[in-house]
What does this fold into?
Amino acid sequence: MKLFILAQILFLTRLVGFAKQVMLADSITKNPVSYATVYDANGAVIGRSDMGGYISLQKGYEYHISHIGYQPKSLVYNEDDIIFLSPSSYIISEITATAKRKKYYHCKVYFRSIEHVDSCLKYYMDGIREFYIDTKSRKVHCGNVVTNYFMSKRQDIAQKKRSMMIGDRYMALPFIDKYSLYEETMRDKKRNIKAGVVYADTVSIGSCKMLPEKNEMLFSIDALWPKNMLVINLFGYTQVLSKHNKTELYRNDDYNAPSVFDLKSSNSYRHLTLTHKKENLVRDIDVEDEFYVVEYEYTDKKESSPPELLQDDYKKYSGMFPITERIREQLVREE
It folds into this structure.
């Protein structure tokens, strides 16, 4: 009997195949690409590449790869040791080429927030939002916003239990902090950068990569460090945040540390579990928020754009930053 069970296990293992550690790398510099999101054939998140660019894939399976600094890539994995990603490039519309001595930095961002619950696409939101940032105090003022919102009607991920009605919706509108992720990290005296690696004390927590061909800097960190996880208990709920990665892409001039005024795009990924002590129910949740600065100017006036103009901007810019084909198909299927 034991031999029969062992034979069955070996047979199934051959069918499924072994997962293999694969490096995702920049097609130009050959450097590893950390914190790229990888989806399966159904559009569910299977994981993120680590700081060395590695992720486990299985031969013969379809995958879709997404990263704010690279063009989306779809493939059927064939046991390659390295998968190369092509850097993406888009031109920011600078409305007025004026000096930074102006009172405000005004920018518009195209944003996208995607949430999977139990590996199923449940929430999706994208849109245009504008910001005014005081060039002296760096106080951030939010302008108008237009959004497109989707919630799945699938019954297998519906919130049927009364105790779960606080919700599993973690997506949110974008916000720009007064300090860039790079500045905020370097303000901590325990952190430093050596040979493109971000250290906290002696622990590697991220990467800092120069992209000289595009005059850009790509900065990524593990935002959970020094914790391995963050646990919150509230009204009988237990929320466990086990992964939180942040990445920002900046224009880089080689002279000054990249600030919020140099920000081109931002990505934040979180993996959470949500449970309730009185219900036999566990939610696995993956949330990815990203935005791209599509226009900016320095100005002395703070006048919010009319909604009609932002609607036109949404039509103009939403096609510039494609989502994975499987997610697009799910959105179309449930409309």
The radius of gyration is 22 Å. DSSP finds four helices and 19 strands in the chain. Helices lie at 2-16, 181-186, 307-317, 325-334. Residues 1-16 have pLDDT under 50 and may be disordered.
